[in-house]
Amino acid sequence: MKKISLSNNCVACPYRWKYLNLLQDEDIKAIQGNCLNINFKKGETICKQGTNVTHALYLAKGMVKLYLEGKKSLILKVIKQGQYIDLQTLFGDFVYRYSVSAAEDSMVCMINADFFLKTAKGNPDFLFELTNTISTSTNYVYKKINDLGRKQLRGRIADALLYFSEEIYESETFDLNFTRKEIAELSAMSTENAVRLLTELKKEGIISVEGRHFKVLQIDLLRKISEIG
Amino acid sequence: MKKISLSNNCVACPYRWKYLNLLQDEDIKAIQGNCLNINFKKGETICKQGTNVTHALYLAKGMVKLYLEGKKSLILKVIKQGQYIDLQTLFGDFVYRYSVSAAEDSMVCMINADFFLKTAKGNPDFLFELTNTISTSTNYVYKKINDLGRKQLRGRIADALLYFSEEIYESETFDLNFTRKEIAELSAMSTENAVRLLTELKKEGIISVEGRHFKVLQIDLLRKISEIG
DNA sequence: CGCGAGCTTGACGTTGTTCAACTAGAGTGG
DNA sequence: CCACTCTAGTTGAACAACGTCAAGCTCGCG
Predict the structure, then answer these.
(1) Given a cut of 80, is residue A2 above it in pLDDT?
(2) CB-CB under 8 Å, B120 with A145
(3) Would you say residue A229 has pLDDT above 90?
(4) What is the location of CATH 2.60.120.10 in chain B?
C-alpha cells in the first residue's frame, strides 16, 4: 500500500533538486501546493510505457530503473535519488517511452505537469538547467547505443559492471540490488550468458563475486574489455 | 573546397528554423552577426566525435548523418534540413558524442555557441522550444535502443526501411542516397546481411528494389516484421 | 578497354540463445 | 522442526543467428 502525502516544506527539503534554488521561494511554495509525495515499495511500478505524462516525477529518495517492456525487458538505466525521472517525456510528446519501477523503497514527488512546465517557462535559469539535464541524459543514451550496437557480450557485461561501480554505487565494492536477470536485461543478453560471463571474469581474477556482493579487482582490465568490445 | 559566407538576412531567410520567430528581430539580427554559412559537399565531415562544440550547428539545406565512429561505424540517425544538429551537445557537456557528415551537398549555419546560449537563456519561449526539440530527439534515441537491443536482423532492416520511408523521404517510393554499407551501419549488421535481407524482402514481395530505388509495397507487413523483431 | 567501388551470393566458423537439469536458500504450512 | 515449494543462480549441450571470408558480378569512369 502506498503512503501518499502532501508536500509540506519544499523550501527546506533536504532531498530537493540541486537547482531548485534557482526559483524564488514563492515559486517553490507554489510548486509545493501542486506536489504529492508518494512512497513506492521495491518492485512497484511508478509509471508505465505507453501512458501519458500527467506529472513531473522527481525521485527524492531511493533508486528506480527505467526499462523497455516487451517479451523480454531491456533496462535503459538506473536513476538514483535527487534526479527527475521523466523530463524528456514532459518536454517531449507526453507519452512515456519506457516504464519505471522502484529498485528499492523510494519516495517520488509528483508535480502537476502543466504547472511545472509553466513555472519552468517563467524561470529561464531553471529551465536552462532542466535543458542541460535532459541533454546530458541524451548523451548517456548515445553511449548505451554504442554499447549495445557494437559490442559483444564480454564488452557489454564489462559495461554493466563499470556502470554499477562508477555511476551507481560509486565504489569498487558494492552490494547489488539487482538480480542476474536484471544484469542481463541491462546488457541485452540472456540470463545464462550473464551468469557465465560473470563467473568467467571471476575466474580470471578481474572481479570477485559472492552472490550479490561485487568487487572490481582490476578496473583497468575491465575498461579494456569494455573498449575492445 | 568549402564556400564560406557571412549570413546576410536571417530575418527573411526561407530556410530558417520554424521557431526562430519566437525571437525579436533585433535578436535575430544579432544572431546573424554571429553566424557563418558553410557549404559542405557530400561526404565531407561537419563535426567530429570527441571534439568540443564551438558553434550551434543548424542544417539550413541538405541532409546529414550522425554516426558513431570505431572499427565499424554505427549510424544513429539522419537529419534533414530545417533542424539543429547538435543541441544536446551544446546544452550538455560540449563534447561531441558522434560525428556528422553530409549525406548530400548541404549548407550549415554556424552560430557562436556562447552567443546562442545567451540568447536562448534570454528568451524563455525560444529556449522552451529548443528543450522540446532535444526531448523529442531523446525519445527517438530510446526507440533506437529498443530496435538495436531487442530485435533480430529482419526486424532491424524493417526498421531501417520504415525510417527512410516514413521519417526521411516521407514517401513509399524513394531514391536512397545511402549505400548498402550505410544501411547496414544504420541497422547494426554486416553489409552482407543487409543485402541478403533486402533481397529476401524483395522476393517476398514486401518491397521492390532496383539499385538505390526503393518502393514499399506492403507497409503493414513491414510494420509487423518490425514489431515482432 | 581496364579499373575500382558497390553490390551480391554461398560456404563456413563463431557468437549467442534456448532448453534442460540441477543446486542452494528462503519462506510456508502442517 | 521437517517436508514442500518457489525463486535465483548455475552449468552443459544442442541449436539458431549472425559475421567473416572468398569469389564473382555490374556499372560508371578514366
Answers:
(1) no
(2) no
(3) no
(4) 3-145
**CATH classification number, B3-145, choose in 3.40.50.720, 2.60.120.10, 3.30.1120.10, 2.30.30.110:** 2.60.120.10
What pLDDT was estimated at residue A71?
Answer: 87
Average pLDDT, chain B: 95
Phi, psi of A9 (to 5 degrees): -160, 75
Q: Does the pLDDT of residue B46 top 60, yes or no? A: yes
Q: Nearest Cα to B177, choosing from B107, B103, B106, B108?
A: B103
**Stretch (H or E) spanning A174:** strand A173-175
Which nucleotide comes closest to A188 if you measure CA to C1'? Answer: C16
Task: Please report how many Cα atoms fall inside a 13 Å half-sphere around the Cα of residue B4, on the Cβ side.
Answer: 5
Residue A4, pLDDT score: 87
Q: Report if pTM > 0.85.
A: yes
Q: Residue B1 above 60 pLDDT? A: no
Nucleotide nearest to A176 (CA to C1'): D8
Give contacts of A142 with chain B, Cβ < 8 Å: 68, 76, 97-98, 141
Between the alpha carbon of residue A108 and those of residues A5, A15, A29, A46, A119, the distances in Å are: 11, 11, 18, 9, 19
For chain B, the DSSP string reads ---EEE---STT-TTS-TTGGGS-HHHHHHHHHTEEEEEE-TT-EEE-TTSBP-EEEEEEESEEEEEE-SSS-EEEEEEESSEES-HHHHTTTSB-SSEEEESSSEEEEEEEHHHHHHHHHT-HHHHHHHHHHHHHHHHHHHHHHHHHHH--HHHHHHHHHHIIIIIIS-SSEEE--S-HHHHHHHHTS-HHHHHHHHHHHHHTTSEEEETTEEEES-HHHHHHHHHH-
Answer whether B127 touches A (CB < 8 Å).
yes
- Contacts with B139 from chain A: Cβ below 8 Å: 88-89, 92-93, 97
pLDDT above 50 for B35? yes
Mean pLDDT of A42-63: 96
Location of C-alpha cell 527527475: A84
> Domain B151-228's class?
mainly alpha
Given an 8 Å threshold on Cβ–Cβ distance, is A138 in contact with B72? no
What is the residue-averaged pLDDT of chain A?
Answer: 95
